[in-house]
Design a protein that fits this description.
Layout: H1 2-9, E1 16-19, H2 27-37, E2 43-46, H3 52-60, E3 64-67, H4 73-90
Parallel strand pairs: 1-2, 2-3
């Protein structure tokens, strides 16, 4: 988590993909830390694998898009590409 936040501080990220449930990492805290550093970097959070309350809280953080179709790598990749394409269209 520290190295990812350092990369955000240095401006070395285009977007961030976060798994909602990660061992030893509070995904919501990580997302909030990223938002504190960079309010504009797109964040895509894979939800539905962890705590439903945390999943719902993710939706309230500005600039965060959630994706729940994580059944396989191809579905997740297609959904992330669609989301990021839409974010680029809005810019």
């Amino acid at each position: 988590m520290a190295s990812a936040l350092r990369a955000v501080r240095e401006g070395n990220v285009t977007a961030i993909l976060v798994a909602g449930e990660q061992p030893r990492v509070d995904a919501l805290e990580f997302v909030l830390n990223v938002r504190d550093i960079d309010a504009d970097v797109p964040i895509v959070v894979a939800v539905g694998t962890g705590d439903a309350v945390v999943d719902e809280a993710m939706v309230t953080v500005g600039g965060v898009v959630t994706v729940s179709d994580c059944s396989d790598t191809y579905s997740l990749a297609a959904e992330v590409q669609r989301i990021l394409g839409g974010l680029n269209d809005e810019a």
